[in-house]
């Protein structure tokens, strides 16, 4: 090859290298701009795009010294523009220089694990509600409405054996309320509390206080149905029936309550102490109504050598009630 041909070949090679360098530079700039690391591929079926040379094609020399031109090199193609990649989310801090030279393909970046789902705090356990102290909202119902509900009540087994429900007797506007245990046979037959022998003794005790048993007092029981055989009421029977009594007392709103016997005292005052432990001492019903615990009239009717002392103690208890009501003392 002549010197002129060599020069021409070098010049052509230089231009080819310059074109390759320009293509490589464009590719690196595209990588930096898009953050991609792979080699883009042109879409299937797309024709290669020729890259023009940086200058005009050289003019071959003429004359005897002109060498045959070398076969043309295949044209270089510029890679087809890849579809735009989504811009990566900005980092909270500036990206270091080293990271710019080694960009991470967002398609292969591992996303941080999602935060764990919050664990719901366990619901607080509901406070138990005692049927002996129901929460009363709004004004109490009228006594006839409560009595009508008692008539149709089937909350316990006593509903299957009763003849009548026994609600109350006396004056609902009285200042003094007597609360007994449960109806007996006579009360179950008539539907009225304290009409048997114990009721007759109670009437005499009330009259000894200078009061009228029908006009000056209100009389009721813890239980509204007779327990078979006059047995002591079961706890489930008391729990089923006591809300009615709470409503009765709320309507009557007496100034003083006399609790007759163990069942009445234990239920009204929520105590397990026997009547001999608490009688004669003032207590409070729901923190506001004075309660005087004393013996049940049926207990005072029992034949016993100690009954004389019990009757005297019961009268002393009623004297304390009279004093609380502002009544003059009476002799038994």
From TrEMBL:
CDD domains recorded: UDG-F4_TTUDGA_SPO1dp_like
Protein keywords: 4Fe-4S, DNA damage, DNA repair, Hydrolase, Iron, Iron-sulfur, Metal-binding
Reaction(s) catalysed (UniProt annotation): Hydrolyzes single-stranded DNA or mismatched double-stranded DNA and polynucleotides, releasing free uracil
Enzyme type, top EC level: hydrolase
Comp. bias regions, Low complexity: 34-48
Segments forming domain Uracil-DNA glycosylase-like: 167-319
InterPro entries noted in UniProt: UDG_Type-4/5 (IPR051536), Ura-DNA_glyco_family4 (IPR005273), Uracil-DNA_glycosylase-like (IPR005122), Uracil-DNA_glycosylase-like_sf (IPR036895)
Pfam families for the chain: UDG
Alphabetized GO MF terms: 4 iron, 4 sulfur cluster binding; metal ion binding; uracil DNA N-glycosylase activity
Record-listed E.C. numbers: 3.2.2.27
Biased composition (Pro residues): 49-59, 69-95
One example of a Gene Ontology biological process annotation: DNA repair
Domain of life: Bacteria
Matching SMART domains: UDG (SM00986), UreE_C (SM00987)
Location of the region described as Disordered in the Swiss-Prot/TrEMBL record: 34-100
Family: Belongs to the uracil-DNA glycosylase (UDG) superfamily. Type 4 (UDGa) family.
PANTHER family per record: TYPE-4 URACIL-DNA GLYCOSYLASE (PTHR33693:SF1), TYPE-5 URACIL-DNA GLYCOSYLASE (PTHR33693)
Protein name (Swiss-Prot/TrEMBL): Type-4 uracil-DNA glycosylase
């Amino acid at each position: 090859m002549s010197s002129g041909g060599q020069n021409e070949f070098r010049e052509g090679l230089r231009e080819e290298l310059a074109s390759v360098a320009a293509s490589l530079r464009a590719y690196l700039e595209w990588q930096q701009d898009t953050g991609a690391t792979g080699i883009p591929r042109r879409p299937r079926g797309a024709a290669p795009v020729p890259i023009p040379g940086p200058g005009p094609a050289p003019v071959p020399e003429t004359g005897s010294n002109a060498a045959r031109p070398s076969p043309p090199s295949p044209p270089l193609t510029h890679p087809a523009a890849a579809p735009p990649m989504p811009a990566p989310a900005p980092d909270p801090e500036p990206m270091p220089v080293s990271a710019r030279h080694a960009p991470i393909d967002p398609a292969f970046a591992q996303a941080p694990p999602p935060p764990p789902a919050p664990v719901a705090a366990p619901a607080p356990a509901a406070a138990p509600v005692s049927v002996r102290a129901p929460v009363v909202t709004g004004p109490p119902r009228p006594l006839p409405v409560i009595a009508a509900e008692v008539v149709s009540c089937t909350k316990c087994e006593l509903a299957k054996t009763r003849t009548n429900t026994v609600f109350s007797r006396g004056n609902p506007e009285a200042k003094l309320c007597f609360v007994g245990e449960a109806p007996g046979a006579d009360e179950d037959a008539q539907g009225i509390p304290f009409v048997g022998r114990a009721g007759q003794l109670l009437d005499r005790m009330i009259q000894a206080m200078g009061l009228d048993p029908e006009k000056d007092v209100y009389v009721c029981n813890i239980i509204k149905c007779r327990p078979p055989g006059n047995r002591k009421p079961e706890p489930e029977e008391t729990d089923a029936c006591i809300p009615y009594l709470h409503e009765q007392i709320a309507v009557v709103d007496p100034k003083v309550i006399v609790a007759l016997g163990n069942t009445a005292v234990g239920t009204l005052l929520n105590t397990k102490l026997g009547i001999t432990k608490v009688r004669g001492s003032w207590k409070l019903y729901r923190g506001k109504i004075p309660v005087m615990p004393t013996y049940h009239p049926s207990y005072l009717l029992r034949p016993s050598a100690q009954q004389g002392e019990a009757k005297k103690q019961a009268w002393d208890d009623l004297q304390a009630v009279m004093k609380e009501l502002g009544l003059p003392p009476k002799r038994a």
